[in-house]
Design a protein that fits this description.
Blueprint: H1 12-17, E1 35-41, H2 47-60, E2 64-69, H3 74-84, E3 90-93, H4 97-104, H5 122-129, E4 142-149, E5 151-154, H6 155-161, H7 169-182, E6 186-188, H8 199-209, H9 214-219, H10 225-228, H11 230-238, H12 252-260, E7 264-267, H13 274-280, E8 286-289, E9 302-312, H14 319-329, H15 332-342, E10 345-346, H16 362-367, E11 370-371, H17 384-393, H18 399-414, H19 416-428
Helix pairs in contact: 2-15, 8-11, 12-13, 17-18
Length: 431
Amino acid sequence: MRRKHVVSSLILAGAVLSTLPLSGCAGTSKNDGKTEVTMVQYKPEAVAAFEEMEERFNATHDDIHLTIESPNEAMTVLKTRFIRGDYPDIIGIGGDINYSNFLDADMFLDVSDFEGVSDIKPAYLDIVDELEFIPKDGVYGLPYVANCAGILYNKDMFEENGWKIPATWSEFTDLCETIQNTSDVYPLYLGYKDTWTCMAPWNALAVGLSSPSTCSDVNAGKTTFTDAYQEVAEKDKVLLDYAEPNPYAYSYNDACTAFARGESAMYPIGSYAVPQIQSVNPDMNIDSFVFPANEDEADNVLNSGVDLQLCVMKETKHKDAVYEVLKFLYDDETIQIYLDNQNAVPCKDGDFTLPSMLDGMRSYIDEGRMSDFHDHHYPTEMSVDAMVQTYLMDDSSDSTAKFLKRFDKEWKRYNRDLIAKVQKYEEENAS
């Protein structure tokens, strides 16, 4: 069995969900005696891809009928259904705090015996492992696709000016200085009006400058955010020197538009922004590179997380049929449908065609040099994005110290029960 790590935080819903009566909703149904398998997935922007998958599956299977639902506000829909005891067979959710809470409520089936597990890249299985509050034997989340975050850059602009891709923090800040002093474009565009965008550079720096187990280590009393995030916070603020004035006045859409129109050479954001950028400038030549957070390139890490994973509900009555669906969904041709539709990264080993804008990150993907978005471990109620935005707007000399002190204080406030649970586990399992 795989040994898992202790991470992240507990929300109040976890304890409630674990006490609910469970009942399956799928079964042999109205579809001419076929076994009905239902799946709810949380990415409405990918509805076209899932409609194609559903159609292909049902056209090639005589004894199983697959229904894939892609509702808006899917997490709210799922939680409401769970309260009613109305469970789909499979859910497609992100590798984030929601998965942690559902797993902690013991809602998922151990799918270690699914033959497709061995084809999934170990780095992404490890990322899912890190989302567990308390170590748990087995496999409960099957990574499907991932996204990557670092720095998008205007490839034509770089080639025209002879700018080289930086591999270290010093090379990166030197490049920003050069662009600032020798061109009429901003080195970076940030667009921090939408608080969530503040987390893109934060996460990309955090994976390179702190441990992937930072949150679980804090819960276990092994470190503090004041110690773990000092360099992350300091370097995050440096980016302001090379960006548009008053980035808090510009939204995510504004930033995508400005970058698409050539107002900046780089944009620190995830691969998920590319479709929005290309909607403004379809011919833009975009590439990417890993955020060079360190002074040694060997220490840099790609910020990549599981954007979509498939989980089987524990109370499914049709495990064999569900596994047949999973086998289809994890077929290379099926995964490619999603990749082509969403510019995503496959979590499975295989001969896939990746979007060209990920060329600069490809070696990290192939080598498994990646780590999850730190905010996948933050409790929603803590509103870390707003905290980071407030910190970046604070020009006082002690802003970093104040911010980190607040981070530690708020973490304890929102994770008090989880911290007690983790530390009890640590005490009981001390060697």
